[in-house]
Amino acid sequence: MSFASAGNGSSDHLSAELFWQQSGTRACTSRTRAARPPSTTCSAAVDAGFVNINAIIQHIKGGKVRALAVASAKRSTLLPDVPTLDELGVKGSEVQSWQAVAAPKGLPADVKAKLHAALVSSLNDPAVKDKLVAQGFEIVANTPEQFSAYQATEFARWKNLIETRKITAD
Q1: Which residue from 3, 28, 105, 128 has the highest number of Cβ atoms inside 10 Å of its Cβ?
Q2: How far apart are CA 168 and CA 106, in angstroms?
Q3: How far apart are CA 143 and CA 32, in angstroms?
Q4: Which has the closest alpha carbon to 148: 95, 94, 103?
Q5: pLDDT in tens, 110-139
């Protein structure tokens, strides 16, 4: 079986490595050209791939590719009939793609609080939220401290996988 990858160390490659580690399996990785994401080559060039839902949802809905599972902790609202890897018996393979807003270190607390409040308000505005959710995004909008803790946990988890699997970047 072959998996699409944008190259060694890419997020799709690391997701596949985590899956292989947790499932005790292995597959060939087929590198796709950077200009053509795996979402456009899965059906013709490779058997499978780990792709962010917002990058592939139109291909799934259009019948070009089939979603086998989602790598999130819970089912996607966009694909409610597609099971999670955990439901299929592959424990510990959850992968979250995230976006964040960063500000300079040492930002005054009052400015940080105002910025955070404005961002949370904007993200929860139905005009914005509905568009993001329709594209596969999940609005978290947690506190800067909660995100820093999450980021540290994720960094340690991926660092461990990279070192254990001896992964290098292209």
Answers
A1: 3
A2: 33
A3: 37
A4: 103
A5: 999 999 999 999 999 999 999 998 888 889
Domains of the chain: 2-96 (3.40.190.10)
164 has a pLDDT exceeding 70:
yes
The tokens for 158 are: 């991926």
pLDDT at 39 over 60: no
From CA 123, how far away is CA 134, in angstroms rounded?
13
Whether the CB-CB separation of 84 and 73 falls below 8 Å is answered with: yes
**Token pair listed for 133:** 């959710």
Q: How many CB atoms lie within 10 A of CB 16?
A: 23
In sequence order, the 6+-apart residues with CB closer than 8 A to the CB of 87 are 69
Length of the chain as a residue count = 170
Q: Looking at the whole model, is its pTM more than 0.90?
A: no
Q: What are phi and psi of 2, to 5 degrees?
A: -115, 145
As a whole number of angstroms, the distance between CA 30 and CA 3 comes to 6
- Given the structure tokens 């592939």, which residue do they identify? 56
Amino acid at 79: L
Q: CB–CB of 28/1 below 8 Å?
A: yes
- Close Cβ partners of 155 (under 8 Å, ≥ 6 residues apart): none
For the chain, the average pLDDT equals: 88
